[in-house]
Amino acid sequence: MIVLRNVSKVYDFRVTALDDITLSIPKGDFVFLVGHNGAGKTTLLSLLVRADRASAGVVLVGGQDLALLKESEVPLLRRRFGIVFQDLKLFPGKTVAENVALAMQVQGCTGKRAHTSAADALALVGLQHRASFLPGQISGGEQRKAAIARAIVHRPEIFIADEPTASLSPEAAWEITCLLMEVNRLGITTIVATHDKDVVDGFSRRVVALDNGRIVRDVQIGKFMEN
């Protein structure tokens, strides 16, 4: 589903964010992407959705070379993704259900179908009882669930979460990660960038570790750090 071959990203002033990255993520895989701040995690994710371009190397998504995409084709690429950023970007003046339905509406799906899809996504994340609430009226963990529902309402091929458990209690972090596993079980390729050692160690899934822009570890059943 995702292939990076000898990918580097160098910003102005010769700051190297990624250095000769080679990585393959098969369809349906679940990957924890770990590393300290500045390791290159966010840069790697931004390349996948063409929010940025590689300075060297090849980035393929579903066999599509992102360097060859026209700007007019980038929105179609992004429809293949569901994304939850650290800034959840929920609209404070819209209800939870309206926030989720909006993801369908921007893709041209309106009316009953958009609202039905939103209801199904909220049921999947266990948030149907908060559908009529505003984001400011629900807890931080519930806000994460709403953002996940919005990200998967259109059944994307790939789901990306950037620090989805940040600032949550251990119990809420565990619940959110269990939910991400459920997303993955739908057949959605899932990439989770995280600093949460307890979550990574507790779920024993594939771990790709970055340090100073390079992949230093890629293990199928891994821990946050090597023993």
User: Going by CATH, what is the homologous superfamily of the domain at 2-80 and 156-222?
Assistant: P-loop containing nucleotide triphosphate hydrolases
CATH architectural grouping of the domain at 2-80 and 156-222: 3-Layer(aba) Sandwich
C-alpha termini separation: 30 Å
Strand order of the largest sheet: 6-7-8-3-9-10
Low-confidence stretches: none
Major beta-sheet overview: 6 strands, mixed
Overall body shape: globular
Strand count: 10
SSE ordering: EEEHEEHEHHHEHEHEE
What would you report as the Rg, rounded to the nearest angstrom? 17 Å
Helix content: 25-40%
Determine the mean pLDDT: 93
Judged by helices, strands and strand pairing, the structural class is alpha/beta
Q: Write down the CATH class of the domain at 2-80 and 156-222.
A: Alpha Beta
What is the count of helical runs? 7
Describe the structure using short key phrases.
single chain; 227 residues; alpha/beta; Rossmann fold; six-stranded mixed β-sheet; four-stranded antiparallel β-sheet; 7 helices; 10 strands; 32% helix; 27% strand
